[in-house]
Amino acid sequence: MARIVWLASYPKSGNTWLRALLCNFIADAGRPLRLADLPRYAADESKPNWYLPYAGGRTPGELSALETAALRTRVHRDIAASASGAMVLVKTHSFFGALEGYPLQDLGVTAGAICVVRNPLDVVPSMADHFGVSLDEAIEFLANDMTGTPGDEANVASVLCSWSTHVRSWCQSGLSHLQVIRYEDLLAEGPGTFAKVVRFLGMGHDPARLKRAIRSSSVEELRRQEEAGGFEERSPNSQRFFSHGLKGRRREPLSSDQVARVVAQHRPLMAQFGYLPAGS
Asked: Which of 71, 83, 175, 176 is geometrically suited to a Cys-Cys bond with 2, CB 3.0 to 4.6 A?
């Protein structure tokens, strides 16, 4: 049975881009992987097909967050058992912990985790666009420890908590094999930060292969594929999934008052990761 390395993040924090980078590095196919092929190289623990055998005839979208949490360890063991190698990468947006006693991660099949963190000032407008809510509603969502997303045809119910609680839960998870990276560093440093991720996973160091993976996973390439064939993770509330890939690009819509509210709600973690605006 393989062991899971979690690709963990709060929603809209770069998880999909990191998966595209890693999947293109693993495949090294000489051409960009199709978006539809990413699940062949990195699983997604929120996909309903994993839960169908245990749903008792109901669709996974009909299961509550608690009912879904009760099934998660079985699903995680199925994911681990289905992998052909010693390690399987698995995307998750769940915070690290449990819901009413039900673990959201099966530590029995866990090898470690990579946690991607993104500035909440950039997460807010991205989430507002993705979920079709106002900026103020997105700000409140990121501040609420009772937040999650309901199950639907595309994903089972999730348990997120606030941005700060989510990030803190993974950073303080106690996992012996844990790497925390900033989305902004992945953007700014490119090969350097991605090389650290690859080494963390024990995949060696091949600069030419790294460059090919980065080229095959550029925002321009991902956007081109989405425009040509769509992308199942795109929300019906937004025109594009891969719409903005630059640090701070989406921060402009926030007013000074909205920025101040986000800072007040998440100051300690924002300070820790260097996200506090000048003068805050």
From this structure: 83
Indicate the pTM of the whole model: 0.90
> Residue 11 and residue 270: Cα distance in Å, rounded?
17
Residue 16 contacts residue 245 (beta carbons within 8 Å): no
Task: List helix spans (H) across 201-245.
Answer: 207-216, 219-229
Q: What is the pLDDT of residues 237-252, one digit of tens each?
A: 445 455 555 444 444 5
CA distance 144 to 161: 6
Structure tokens at 271: 């300070």
C-alpha–C-alpha distance, residues 160 and 62, integer Å: 19
Secondary structure (3-state) at 273: coil
Kindly state the DSSP code that residue 176 receives in the 8-state scheme: S
> Three-state SS for 175?
coil
pLDDT(104) > 60: yes
Name residue, tokens 């950073």: 171
| Closest listed residue to residue 248, CA positions, set 221, 215, 220, 275 | 275
How far is it, in rounded angstroms, from Cα 238 to Cα 30?
Answer: 31
Would you state the structure tokens that stand for residue 49, as one six-digit string?
């097909």
Q: How far is CA 68 from the centre of its chain?
A: 19
